[in-house]
Amino acid sequence: MAFQIMKPNDETPELAPSFGSPPDAEPDNPTALPLEVLRKFRWTFIIRHPRSGIPSLYRLSMPSQREATGWDYFLPSEAGYKELRKLFDFLLSRHVIDRASICLVDADDLLAQPEKITEAYCRSIDVDYKPEMLRWDTDEDDAHVREVFAAPQWQAFHYDAMTSRGLHARKADHTPKSAAELHQSWITEFGTEGAAIIRDTVNANMPDYEYLKSFAMRV
To answer: Considering only CA atoms, which of 208, 168, 202 is closest in space to residue 56?
Structure first.
């Protein structure tokens, strides 16, 4: 969600006035949050391959979803990969995050090895790992989900997670589709124009994704 704390379209960054500092007090800071605020967090990151993330984002702007999401447009500039890289590099350059202990998870790795990746994530943030973290199938869990995602628009964005019962590994024989197969599947679901927008947006965000992927935790 780095996109949400930055000026859009490469506009000159400014600190939010609510923090009491002049807007241009930190010209190298790409966010609206002062560095002293950014230092208060334990930063962890999760990334998703654009070939999965972009179609998912585009889908939420389709006519069938608009009433639920309140979102009737798709802008490639809101994909967020560029902004996440800017935030990541800024935090790294200011030693807010330590290169030796970066905690960055790739969603494909998480789906391939949920137990090992979650255990490594917990170890990175000094939390005791418990296998039950990968399950949420009790009445109490269901009540918590209904409370947290009570607003209809959030239900649309998080429906798959809300209706799941846990995190399970992908099938061992899972094979990613080729670029041609993916494009054809996008044409089938989104039409020729939509597929072209998705393809171009995926390609535009690949360099930032691959850069961030190079920092992903290994198990």
So the answer is: 202
